């Protein structure tokens, strides 16, 4: 019998736990370590921030679901990974031993790297966590009562740009519904070298699509932007040229601000030699396996992925939902092979299928694989995307509540669309 521990119960951690239980049966133990017992559907956070959803609408209590699936939940959270000892220290001082570990922690949000940035002591809002989005709703209500200029976007080093665009357009729609949009000048500020880069050097014509949406909604933009600091009433950003010099310094009035931060690895794993890079992200090979600690795998936002190319301002690579699910499936397959005395040979495709909601429309794109060069590079827009995103939210939350990672009809649909989670098996 093997003890398999999953660190984190977000999208990747929850799905990998369900797949481990399904693939391995009850012969082996599956334990999930997480801070609390609540799963939050993060893609819905922009809706929470404008009151289109409540926090409770997009959350699931994992305790009863895990109990039915014979998955042990440790809600104390991890304090420190002791990789050389094959154990995880929890915040209450207790230890959990493992034979195999899957790190799916997600990121730590690096608000502290910019003066005045972030919710709480800072002056900006966030949709990175559902609790943050709930706080942003109060700030949104205040904006409706007392309209003024808004800055939306992402800061240098950010890697998740889709939610920034989503929130800009959703906020535009919510302000129009409230009949105050005419009193709210909006500026989109991003480190991307061009609008629609997304950390992926674009997908299809996302540059043209996103620029058109911004123009249609009277949202100005600044690219190659490096945020210097924020105050209660402004965002100070420098526009950087290709030579690295400051082209222009902008002091943007901002009564409401929502900018996505850079990420780093969580403190429980950061700084472990051979496991993480200097930023704290987990180093993995093509099988999701760490080369130094071969019984450790990693999936999701916590993994280290090199940028797609050089940019004037640092831009990271996003880890999208379907890409993370493909990492989970590959990891489960490789752990199963190790338990059978075989070498890992399963590789995730890292394909991306994304729906970006704009409140009354949206953009969908398919990138196979997510990192260029690609076999499929497609993007489209329309009102159908909003309806599809709503449907997907309900569908995914149902998966989490029922403890099923991939119902048979999802498999059939993916086969029909020729979208695969795994590459053809290779033998090294």
Automatic annotation (TrEMBL):
SUPFAM superfamilies listed in its UniProt record: FAD/NAD(P)-binding domain
Nucleotide-binding is among the record's keywords: yes
Molecular function terms in GO for this entry?
A: NAD(P)H dehydrogenase (quinone) activity; nucleotide binding; quinone binding; sulfide:quinone oxidoreductase activity
Keyword Repeat attributed: no
Describe its membrane topology.
Answer: Peripheral membrane protein
- Which Pfam family, any one of them, does this sequence belong to? Pyr_redox_2
Catalytic activity field: n a quinone + n hydrogen sulfide + n H(+) = polysulfur(n-2) + n a quinol
User: Which Gene3D superfamilies does the record associate with it?
Assistant: 3.50.50.100
Main location per UniProt?
membrane
Q: Which residues form the FAD/NAD(P)-binding domain?
A: 3-303
Per the UniProt entry, the Enzyme Commission number(s) are: 1.8.5.4
* Record key words, sorted: FAD, Flavoprotein, Membrane, Nucleotide-binding, Oxidoreductase, Quinone
| Top-rank taxon, per record | Bacteria
Q: Where in the cell is it found?
A: Membrane
One of its GO biological process terms is: aerobic electron transport chain
Cofactor annotation: FAD
Q: Can you list the GO cellular component terms from the UniProt entry?
A: membrane
Give the UniProt family note: Belongs to the SQRD family.
Q: Which PANTHER family match?
A: APOPTOSIS-INDUCING FACTOR 1, SULFIDE-QUINONE REDUCTASE
Role = Catalyzes the oxidation of hydrogen sulfide, with the help of a quinone. Consecutive reaction cycles lead to the accumulation of a polysulfide product on the active site Cys residues; these products are released when they exceed a critical length, typically as cyclooctasulfur.
Protein's name according to its UniProt entry: Sulfide-quinone reductase
Q: Which organism is it from?
A: Martelella radicis
Q: What is the lineage of its organism?
A: Bacteria, Pseudomonadati, Pseudomonadota, Alphaproteobacteria, Hyphomicrobiales
